[in-house]
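Subject: sequence -> structure tokens, single chain

Hey, anyone have a minute? Need the predicted structure for the following. Not urgent.
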Amino acid sequence: MTLTLHAYWRSSASYRVRIALNLKGLPYAVVPVNLVREGGEHRRDDYLARNPQGLVPTLEVDGVPLTQSLAILEWLEEEHPLPPLLPRDPISRARARSFALAIACEVSPLSNLMVREYLDRVLKLDAAAQQAWHAYWIGRGLAACEAMIAGDNGPFCFGEAPTIADCVLVPQLYNARRFGIDLAGFPALLRAEAAMLALPAVQRAAPEAQPDAA
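Reply:
Had a minute. Here:
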């Protein structure tokens, strides 16, 4: 099986998939997709043929493209179940999925590149207004996620091993810092992040470790 990851180094969705691939010990090739180059490589016809949404990442499996990061993580779990990224019991599995979806569907998209371009070019919000937007939505989302895991002992989001929740959390906290958001009020999230960042597999997935890092 040949895996090719079309990704942008600072994309949080790409970061999630790199973490999962590394945790499962799967070899993959990286094809950088530059989102900020003039015109955007994600808007080219050859890339849109792989991913009609023009988003990253796209994981090609023997030439077959898979899109949407959480769908890719679920495929990885089904096709390569060890080590697992979902807890064994159904309630814990649902909780891990709920946490991951809360970030991937309701927090992260509100600060992605398309939204930032719209805030800037269409709504013409100044830098302070844009910062207030990001701080409000990211802070609100992280507060809910903090509550979701505050009663768990960790060290990861849901127990003693990483799950899809942790794969999604690490990139979101990375993005939060990019926007200058104070994370001191989220001790449970920071605890899980620290456990993840101690793992070599997660360190190799870091944006700055990627071949296209600017």
